[in-house]
Amino acid sequence: MTAAAESTVTTGTVQVGGLRMRYRDTGAGDPVLLLHGIGRSLEDWTEQHDRLSAGHRVLSLDLPGFGYSDRLPGPSTLDGLAAALPGFLDAVGAAGPVHVVGNSLGGAVAMRLAADHPGRVRSLLLANSAGFGKEVTIALRILAIRPLGALLLRPNRAGATRTTQAIFRDRSFATAERVELALALAAHPGHNRTLLEVARDLGGLRGVREPWRTALIADLIARRIPTLVVWGDRDLILPAAHLDAARTLLPDAETRLFPDTGHMPQIERADEFAELATAFFAARSTS
């Protein structure tokens, strides 16, 4: 299945290397790829589809094993998630370089894609991205404990409510609809297994592991891809102090701190996020 570049709105699935991947495709223009975080889905980008599609072709997807996309063969890893993306871009007709936006885990996936396939990435916008420090919420660290991690991920409304509230500073964004989606994702076959595997690939009880972070940043620096790093100053998942680390590790990157904002600035500060992204992309446009 191939989505035409001039498509206005497409929501469905595409076959990529034998995997069925769920995606959304809106707008037209320079392509933008949006990557969600761990245990999340493409719905985290609805607000940015609504705003960015006026001037760009905007693509989002459920990363393999998350949401309603098929799992990768074998254990799910950061490298495996990133390796699936060139095939996805080919399948939807986005053969040239794209602007890539990643939130949380999606930021690390975006960096890995850029490091491994620099010709596919025009720029990087990393929002509250994994990869800049070891500190992470205890809720993810305890997933390393077997079998406690699997028990904690059993679908229940109270847990879905807590986790949804934790990603926002303003809890009015933790709507009933978002809680229901969290419940549905947790009940979907393979979703929680993928979450556990990726969490254990990247970290443990002591936090996010250093070796993969150091190697990834070194690879990214060597590619010299224009990068913007943004953060919410009230992030309970990955602390805003990681933005200071990003400034040190990527001295050529642009940065922005959103005040009174949690882990999802693309939702809580949707207008400001879209304006910032649009200006950043425009400076690196093909037109």
TrEMBL record:
One function term, GO molecular function aspect: hydrolase activity
Signal peptide, first to last residue: none
Superkingdom field: Bacteria
Family annotation (InterPro entries): AB_hydrolase_1 (IPR000073), AB_hydrolase_fold (IPR029058)
TM spans (from-to): none
Residue ranges annotated for the AB hydrolase-1 domain, each copy included: 31-269
Alphabetically ordered keywords of this record: Hydrolase
Keyword Hydrolase attributed: yes
Any single Pfam family the record assigns to this protein: Abhydrolase_1
Protein name listed in UniProt: Alpha/beta fold hydrolase
Organism: Streptacidiphilus alkalitolerans
